[in-house]
Amino acid sequence: MSFLSEILERKRLEVEGRRSQVDAAVLRQSLSPVSRPRGFGASLSKRGGPVRVIAEVKRASPSAGAIRADADAVGLAQRYARGGAAAISVLTDGPGFGGSLDDLRAVRSAVPVPVLRKDFIVDAYQVLEARAAGADAVLLIVAALEQSELASLLKEVAALGMDALVEVHTQRELAQALEVGAQIVGINNRDLTSFKVDLGVSEALLRQIPENVIAISESGVRALEDAVRLRAAGAANLLIGEALVRAPSPETLLTSWSALP
């Protein structure tokens, strides 16, 4: 089995376990006290707009291993916000990334910008979980879902007032995302099978995204020259994780990236 298929199988088991403890109807009832979603899409740029950075909170990843196992999610997110991050991405997968929904709850309460739940979403229950924890947006990975599942999850996300970041890696996946009406498309420069990073993926796909759709280049920005390269390819929004988590001063990096012409 590939990495992606293994993690999706694990996710489905995790969801069933949590659903057996808290029914979806009960979870939905808990949504009333949760604050209204902040506009994730509204915080980003459309083509030609100023650079916006979605800064990611993660302690580890399957490709990099441990990054900062002891990272304080709230402290990191607050530094990101002070540095000008347009939004915060929070990994909520435990085994692969060292994250949790508790991280998301805590971050959402501590920063004024929109917060994305980044996880492997395979079930509408996880969308409910995300909103109950305060998420303003969720990640939907085209490679992880059947087309009918993607369409159904997009409707659930919209019904809860959130935004969906629909992630693609190939031209075919981009076509699938646009077919179901995705309004925010993330181009992942990291292949989820080989873990190879290629900024050329964004360079090839950015020009194929309609101007009315928000495009985000994800993964592979390790230095200013990477951001400059993606900016030259038309990227207005960058999702950056590992480089910021490792940086002694993430605020400085965010300021330099956000100032790109």
Label this structure with key terms:
about 260 residues, alpha/beta, TIM Barrel, two-stranded antiparallel sheet, 12 helices, eight-stranded parallel barrel, globular
Explain what you see.
- The protein is of the alpha/beta class and 261 residues long.
- It has helices spanning 3-21, 24-29, 73-82, 94-97, 101-110, 124-132, 147-159, 171-179, 200-205, 224-232, 242-246, 250-258; strands spanning 52-57, 60-61, 65-66, 87-91, 115-118, 137-141, 163-168, 184-188, 214-218, 237-240.
- It has one domain (3-32, 40-258): TIM Barrel (Alpha-Beta Barrel), CATH 3.20.20.
- 42% of the residues lie in helices and 17% in strands.
- The strands form two sheets. An eight-stranded parallel barrel has the order 1-4-5-6-7-8-9-10, surrounded by six helices. A two-stranded antiparallel ribbon has the order 2-3.
- The longest helix is centred in the first third of the chain and has 19 residues, at 3-21.
- The N and C termini lie far apart (43 Å).
- How much helix, percentage-wise, in residues? 40-55%
Computed structural class: alpha/beta
Rg, Cα atoms, Å: 17 Å
| pLDDT averaged residue by residue | 94
Dominant shape: globular
Total beta strands:
10
Lateral strand order in the biggest sheet: 1-4-5-6-7-8-9-10
Question: What is the terminal-to-terminal distance?
Answer: 43 Å
Q: Under the CATH scheme, which class? A: Alpha Beta
Oligomer state equals single chain
Can you tell me the CATH topology? TIM Barrel
Largest sheet: 8 strands, parallel, barrel
